[in-house]
Amino acid sequence: MTLTLQVVLVVSAALFSTGLLAALSRRHAIFILIGIEMMLAAANLNFIAFWRFSPQSQPPVGVMIAIFSIAISAAEAAVGLALVIAVYRHYGTTNVDHLDQLKG
Amino acid sequence: MSRWIIGHLWLICAVPLAAALAILSLPNSRHKSAATLAVAGQIAALVMSFLAFLPTLQTPGFRVVQNFTWFAFGDNALQLGWLLDPLAAVMLTMITLVGLCIFIFSTGYMAGDKNFVRFFAYLSFFSGAMLGVVISNSLLLLFICWELVGLASYLLIGFWIERPSAAAAAKKAFITTRIGDMGFFVGLLWLYGRSGTLLFYNGGNGCLEGAGLAMVGASATSIALLIFCGAVGKSGQFPLHVWLPDAMEGPTPVSALIHAATMVAAGVFLVARVYPIFSLGAIEGVTSSLTVVVWIGVTTALMAALIAIAQADIKRILAYSTVSQLGLMMVSLGVGGVAAGMMHLLAHGFFKALLFLGAGSVIHGCRGEQDIRRMGGLRRLTPITFSTYAIGMMALSGVPLFFSGGWTKEEILHVTGKWPVSRLPYYLLMIGVVLTALYMTRQIIYVFFGDRRTGSQNAHESPRVMTMPLIVLASCAVLFSIVLTPAWPWLHDYLTDQSAQFEFARLIQPTLFLSLVLVGGGFALGIWMYRKAGIQDRARPAETDPLEFTQPGLFRFLENKMWIDELYVRTVIAFSWTSARFSDWMDRSFWDRLARGLGGIGQLFGIFTAGVDERGINAGIDETTIGTRGLGRLISGAHSGQIQTYLGVIAIGVLALLLFYAWLA
Fold it and tell me: What is the DSSP string of B100-119?
C-alpha cells in the first residue's frame, strides 16, 4: 500500500477528531490541554502532507514551517500548564466544570 | 472767621446733627452728658449763625451760594447747594437763639423723665434739619430737610409713647402734613420739568432767576399753588390745620420750638423763599396764586382766633393762636408784604416760644395740670413766670410801641389795607386782632388772677434754669422792636435789600392809633367778659365759662373746633374707610376668586399632564426596560461558564460551515 495524500488526511482527521473528543469530554484541564495538542499535531500533519504531495516539494521549506509550529505549540503547552497550576492553586481543583465564574 | 463760615455753611446744620448722633450713642442714664452735648451743639450753631449773619449786614442785597453736584445722570447733573442771604441769615439767628433758650429750659422741664437722653437726641436732630431748611439753595434739598423736620416733629409729638393720645396725635400730624407734602412734591417735579433746575440761585440760571423763571412761564400759577399745599400742611393753614392743636400732646418745649417758633413757620418761609414763582407775571402785585394765599390766610387767621376763645387747655389756646398768627403771615405774603410777613414770623418766633415756655412753667408749677379753669391765682405764686408771660401776651396781642408784635401787626395791617383786590381781608384781620387780645386776656385772667382752684393749690415757681430762658426771651420780645419801628425800619429794609435811614417823624403812623384802639378794645372786652371768671360765684357753677353761660350754642360750636375734625371723620376718613373696605371686599371676593379660578385651571392641567406622564410615558419606558431586562436575562443564560460547552458549540459551528460550503460546492 502506497502512502497517498488520502491516507495521510484520513489519519490526520482521525487524530483531530480524537483530540477534539478529548478536549470536549474530559473534565481534567490537563487532558483538555493534551486534546488541544493532538488537534495541533493533526494540523501539522496536514500541513506536512500537503507540502509533501505538492508539485514543488523541495526539502527545507515545509519542514521548517512545521518545526516552527511545533516550537510555538511547545510554548503554548508551557503557558497552558502554568495556567493550570495557577488555577489549581487558586481554586483547589482542575475540574473545568467547577471553573464557571464567567457564567452570565 | 466770618469768611470761613460762609465757605462752610453746611457746618451750621451738620453740627446739631452730629450732636444728635453722639447723644443717641449715649447710654440712657447719662442725662448730664446728653444735655451738655445738645446745648453745646446749639451754642456752636448759634455762634456760627451769628458769624454768618455779620457779613450780610455790610452790603445790601448780599447773597452767597455754594452749589455742588449730587449725582450726574446722562448729560444732566442734579445740583444741590447752600445759600446765605438776608432771609436765611435772620432765620438762622432767630432759630438758633430761640432754640438755645428752649434747650436750656428743657434741661429743667424734662429733668426726671426716663427718656431724657432720647429727647435731647431728637431735639438736636430737629434743630439740624430746621437749619438745613433755612440755608438750602435747592428746592430738593429744602424738601429733604422739610421731611426731616416732619419726622422730628412726629417723633417728638409722640415722645410719650405710652399715652395713646400722643401716638394718635403724632400719626395725625404726620399724615396730615404728608397730604400737603404730596402737593409740594408734585409741584417740585413740575418745576424741575419746566425749568430743568431746582437750584434757587445759580448765577442767573436758577429757577428763581430771570432765565429759569422765563422757562416756568404760564405753569407758574399751578406750580406755586402745589408748593403752597406743602406750606398749608406744615404751617397749619385751613383746611390742614387740624394736626397742630393735637400736636400739643408732645412735651411743652417741643410745642415751643417746633409747633410755635420754627417748624410751623417753615411754610411761611417757603412761600417767602420761592416768592418769585408766586409773583411771576403779577399785575399791581396781584396774581391768582397770591390771591389764594390771602384768602386761605384770612380764613385761617379768623377761624383759629375764634376757636381759641372757647378752649380750656392752656397749650391748645396757644396752638390755635399760632395757627391764627401763621394765617396772618400768609395774608401778609399774599398781599405783597414779604418783609412784613417775615418780620412777624421772627417776632412771633420769640414771643410765642416765650408764651409756650411760660405755659410749660405754669404746667410744671401746677404738677401737670393743663386746664386753665382749674388754675387761678398764680400771679403771686409764680411772679417771674407771670411777668414774662404778660410781656409775651402783650406782644402777641400787638400792643403798640413797646412790643415787637405790635409793630409787625401794624405793618401787616398797613400792607393789607393797600391790597387792590378787596378790602375785606383788612377788616377781617382787624377783627382777628381784637379776638387775639380777647382770648389772651381770658387766658391771663383764668391762669394768673382770681382765686386759687384745684389745680393751683400747691403751685410753685420753676427753677432758675427754666426762668432764665423766659427772661431772655421776654427781653428779646421787647428789644426786638428796636429794629422794627417805622422810624428806623432796619429789618424791613434789610430784608428788601435797602439800607435803613433813621427818620423819627415816621414813628407815629395812623395805623398806630388804629391798632391802639383795636387792642385796647380787645382787652376791655376781655376784662368785662371775664371779670368774674376766676372767682367762685354762687350764681353760676365755678368752672363754667362766662361765654358758655350766656351763649351756650356758640360756645359749644367753638369749643368743638367748629366740628371740623368731626366733618373730616364723616367725609374724608369715612370715604377712606369705605374705599378701603371696598378694596378689601374686591380683593377677597373678586380678585381672590379670579386668582383661585385661574389656579384651578392650572391645577386641572397639572392633573391631566400627570396622568399622561404616569399612564403613557412612564408605562412605555417601564415596558421597554422590562423587555430589555428579559432579553438580557435570556442572553446571559447562554453564558454558562462551561468552557467545554463553548468549545463544543464552536466545533458544531465549524462543522456546520464546512457542510454549508460542501453543499455549495
Answer: HHHHHHHHHHTTT-TTHHHH
Low-confidence ranges of chain B (pLDDT < 50): 538-541
Cα B60 to the center of its chain, rounded Å: 32
Contact B641 A20 (CB under 8 A): no
The confidence band for A103, taking pLDDT boundaries of 50, 70 and 90, is confident
B637 Cβ under 8 Å from any chain A Cβ: yes
**Taking a C-beta distance cutoff of 8 angstroms, is the pair B403, B395 a contact?**
yes
A96 touching chain B per CB within 8 A: yes
A20 touching B, CB under 8 A?
yes
Give chain B's mean pLDDT: 86
If DSSP codes are grouped into helix, strand and coil, which group holds residue B540? coil
Q: Which three cell numbers, joined as nine digits, stand for B456?
A: 393751683
Ordered by where they begin, the domains of chain A are: 7-96 (1.10.287.3510)
- What's the confidence (pLDDT) of residue B544? 67
B624–chain A nearest CA distance, Å:
21
| Cα–Cα distance measured from residue B247 to residue B243, given in angstroms and rounded to the nearest whole number | 6
Of B641, B644, B651, the CB nearest to A103: B641
Please tell me the distance from the alpha carbon of residue B275 to that of residue B463, in angstroms, as a whole number.
44
Question: What is the residue-wise DSSP string for B47-96?
Answer: HHHHHHHHHHHHSTT--EEEEEEEEEETTEEEEEEEEE-HHHHHHHHHHH
C-alpha dihedral (B588, B590, B596, B600), degrees to nearest 10: 160
According to the model, what pLDDT value does residue B540 have?
47
Question: pTM to 2 decimals?
Answer: 0.75
Beta bridge partners of B529: none
pLDDT by residue (tens digit) across B27-73? 888 888 889 999 999 999 999 998 888 888 887 778 888 888 888 88
Rounded Cα–Cα distance for residues B357 and B609 (Å): 77
Q: How many residues are given for chain A?
A: 104
Look up residue B169 and give its three cell numbers. 396725635
ipTM above 0.90, yes or no: no
Cβ pair B638:A104 closer than 8 A: yes
Asked if B525 contacts B368 with a C-beta cutoff of 8 angstroms, the reply is no
- The pLDDT tens digits for A69-83 are 999 999 999 999 999
Burial letters A32-46, b for 16+ CB under 10 A, else e = bbbbbbbbbbbbbbb
Residues of B in contact with A20 (CB under 8 A): 651
Instruction: Quote the pLDDT of residue B195.
Output: 83
